[in-house]
Amino acid sequence: TSPSYFIGQTLIDIESVLRQQLILALTYTSDDRDDLVGSGNHLCGGCTSDSICEQTADICTKFFDALPEIQRTLLTDVQALYDPAAGSKEEVIFTYPGLYAIYVYRIAHVLYDLGVPIIPRVMTEIAHSSTGIDIGAGAHIGEYFFIDHGTGVVIGETTTIGDHVKLYQGVTLGALSTR
After folding, report:
1. Closest alpha carbon to 74 in 132, 144, 147
2. Distance between alpha carbon 49 and the CA centroid of its chain, in Å?
3. What predicted TM-score, i.e. pTM, was given to this entire model?
4. What is the 3-state secondary structure (H, E, C) of the chain?
5. What digits encode the pLDDT tens for the residues 138-172?
6. 29 and which of 113, 117, 148, 177 could share a cystine (Cβ 3.0–4.6 Å)?
7. How far apart are CA 29 and CA 31, in angstroms?
């Protein structure tokens, strides 16, 4: 099995799971849930309406079109995260919780911008539970972003962070006061 075949098959599998999850999220949040009727002849399979089927196909296309840019941006984050104490960039990729939280955020943010309900929030909450780093999917974060020792970092939905920014533990950005 060649690497190209493996990557292609992995993307096909991801696309299938993404479609299923989008159908569920869009159906669950649809304003006209009572009017949804499944004809069984939709292109995406499992859709309950033509509208959700079309939305799902559009979101999948736009999401997969965005993957090269997500990868490019994540590579800038790896460069920013590179720590002389780390043995290699691979060590940073596989062992730094800050990069995991950023990775999940970058993907969730694209889905958020595409108007996907629920899924981006669930993604960032899973990353939060495993890393202690809470990044709202709606936040806008530039390139070369670094979070080290990130326990207790909170980046709210309304936050905008520019390029070449480094954060460390216990930082909260974007909190609004009701006073």
Report:
1. 144
2. 26
3. 0.86
4. CCHHHHHHHHHHHHHHHHHHHHHHHHHHHCCCHHHCCCCCCCCCCCCCCHHHHHHHHHHHHHHHHHHHHHHHHHHHHHHHHCCCCCCCHHHHHHHCHHHHHHHHHHHHHHHHHCCCCCHHHHHHHHHHHHHCCEECCCCEECCCEEECCCCCCEECCCCEECCCEEECCCCEECCCCCC
5. 999 999 999 998 999 999 999 999 999 999 999 99
6. 117
7. 6
